[in-house]
Design brief:
4 helices, two-stranded parallel sheet, about 25% strand, three-stranded parallel sheet, alpha/beta
Length: about 100
């Protein structure tokens, strides 16, 4: 039987997830756990900043743990999706006095 640890994020951090540093602290806690499987419980979170979401995703990719999210509110899901989605932004280059799309 696999043991896992559930982390209620709102209780450990805040209902409003805003700072990159908070995501780093969360994953420092995760890495110190004995359990390999970790469940991040987003119940009672009401907002998330783009910077927190980006840092969370970055830290999750670097983590040695297997991490799963539960109770993720729609605004948080949307922000994770926005951060994960590659943007097809044109690259602009300056040539003399003109800017051209590449």
């Amino acid at each position: 039987m696999t043991s896992y640890k559930t982390i209620p994020i709102a209780r450990h951090l805040s209902e409003n997830l805003a700072l990159r540093d908070s995501a780093r602290k969360l994953f420092k806690l995760v890495e110190e756990l004995d359990e390999h499987d970790v469940v991040m419980d987003f119940a009672h979170t009401s907002s998330i900043s783009r910077s927190f979401a980006h840092e969370y995703i970055t830290q999750k990719k670097q983590s040695s743990k297997r991490i799963k999210e539960i109770n993720v509110p729609l605004p948080v899901k949307k922000m994770f999706a926005a951060v994960n989605s590659p943007k097809n932004k044109p690259i602009l280059r300056m040539t003399g006095l003109r800017t051209i799309k590449v």
